[in-house]
């Protein structure tokens, strides 16, 4: 499509400049439209976090449960708390532990729980040993809404892990 401004002229150079000018205007309008769409889109749509857990559906008593949670739309190396939670039938949610470069566990599971991360695969895992019928539950992986504090030598007094669960 060719657009000319004012009365048509027979000058070939003028026509080339007009076409070039229109192309620049079209490119600018496309860029502005793209920016408007990006600004108008909800932030959650642009970078939606997805956690996909996998593992066996059934574990026999005395065996070890191993579950993996693959993270997409985010990174396990970020400073968030990457949690494991479970819900036994008819019971409330129960926080099991988190990984955020280091780990913290619910004392109820101490000695038989391990949470690790494989940053190259962007995933974190749960191992719960010595399973019993009391461990029958739905297990969930979740990212906390809080970030851990970033400690730097300039902080006075030096910051420490507060033990916040970060959910």
TrEMBL record:
Q: Does the keyword Transmembrane apply?
A: yes
Q: Which residues form a coiled coil?
A: none
Per its UniProt entry, which superkingdom is the organism in?
Answer: Eukaryota
Q: Which SUPFAM superfamilies match?
A: Immunoglobulin
* The keyword Cytoplasm is annotated on this UniProt entry: no
Q: Residues in domain Ig-like? A: 42-141
Q: Which UniProt keywords apply?
A: Adaptive immunity, Immunity, Immunoglobulin, Membrane, Transmembrane, Transmembrane helix
| Name of the protein described by the UniProt record | Ig-like domain-containing protein
Question: What organism does the UniProt record list as the source?
Answer: Mustela putorius furo
């Amino acid at each position: 499509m060719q657009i000319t401004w004012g009365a048509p002229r027979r000058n070939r150079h003028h026509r080339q400049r007009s076409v070039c000018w229109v192309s620049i205007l079209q490119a600018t309008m496309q860029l502005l439209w793209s920016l408007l769409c990006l600004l108008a889109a909800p932030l959650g749509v642009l970078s939606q976090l997805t956690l996909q857990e996998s593992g066996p559906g059934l574990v026999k008593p005395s065996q070890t449960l191993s579950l993996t949670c693959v993270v997409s739309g985010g990174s396990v190396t970020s400073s968030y708390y990457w949690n494991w939670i479970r819900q036994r039938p008819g019971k409330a949610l129960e926080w099991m532990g988190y990984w955020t470069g280091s780990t913290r566990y619910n004392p109820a599971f101490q000695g038989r729980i391990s949470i690790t991360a494989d940053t190259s695969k962007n995933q974190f895992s749960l191992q719960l040993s010595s399973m019993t019928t009391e461990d029958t539950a739905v297990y969930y992986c979740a990212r906390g809404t809080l970030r851990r504090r970033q400690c730097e030598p300039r902080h006075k007094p030096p910051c420490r892990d507060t033990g916040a669960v970060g959910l």
